[in-house]
Amino acid sequence: MTTVKCIYVSCFKSKIKSLSEILLKAEIDLMKRTFPVVDRTVVVMLDDAQFIYEDRTTWTEFMKEALLWLPSNFRFIISATHSLKGGQESPIEFQFFPKLSRNDFLLSDAEASEFLESVIGLRVEMRSDCLKHIIIRDCAGLVGALRLSVDAIDFKFHRSHPSEIELIRYHFSMESIYMMAQVFGSNHTSPMNDASKNMLAQCFQTKSVQYAEDLSEDEKKFFLTLQKAGILVENIAKEIEFSSPLARRYYIQWLFPNRCASEDTLYL
Fold first, then answer.
1. Helices 143-156 & 164-171 angle (0-180, nearest 10)
2. How far is it, in rounded angstroms, from Cα 229 to Cα 85?
3. Residue from 226, 255, 253 nearest 241 by CA
4. pLDDT tens by residue, 77-116
5. Beta strands, E only, the chain
6. Dihedral sign, CA of 94, 95, 97, 101?
7. In what order do the strands lie in the sheet with 74-78?
8. Hey, which residues does 234 pair with through a beta bridge?
């Protein structure tokens, strides 16, 4: 059986800002061109790599040179978290690398249903077809939203036995929606002028909308931030739309926090 040696290296808030120094933790020396000699596949995972993105020169050397002299049994997984505040763009050379996109992490309806019926899903007495259908439709395959939807219900009713109507009502409540900040973020901004307001209004009213030609750079950044947060997505027709009914409802609630005074009101 072929074995794999996995080396995990965290860059999270590292005092070391040099990629070459970080790789020394995996015994890879970019300056001396040395590496551990092993007869199996080596997978090096750089986690939270955005914290050392500023070392652009070394990143370029690593991708253009080091990957040529390192043995073929070395593999690298570069994991990064996009900050909604910006300022941590990935090196341009990354565009040529194979990537896992948002769609690669979405669950199908069957997989989402399997999750809801699993031991880490809804409690057995809560697994009504109607509630499962609503949660699956609302989350549209987003794992984090599915997880938080279950957690919100479990936290609210961990000492009680609610009816199906009570469960559905709570799922649509403001209390439940606010928990989705862990998925969609909360550091958002409102549309700045008429062009972005009209475009966003069309997004709320229709399924998808094309980018307006007269958008300023600030307005484009506004929509890009919503895309990074997973609230908006760009479809194959290059139109933008809400990623899910839940994302749409969450952003409505963010824009109009006092729109409804009762947590029992449904946003259908």
1. 130
2. 11
3. 226
4. 988 876 655 455 666 667 677 777 788 889 999 999 999 9
5. 4-10, 41-47, 74-78, 209-210, 232-234, 239-242
6. positive
7. 4-10, 41-47, 74-78
8. 240
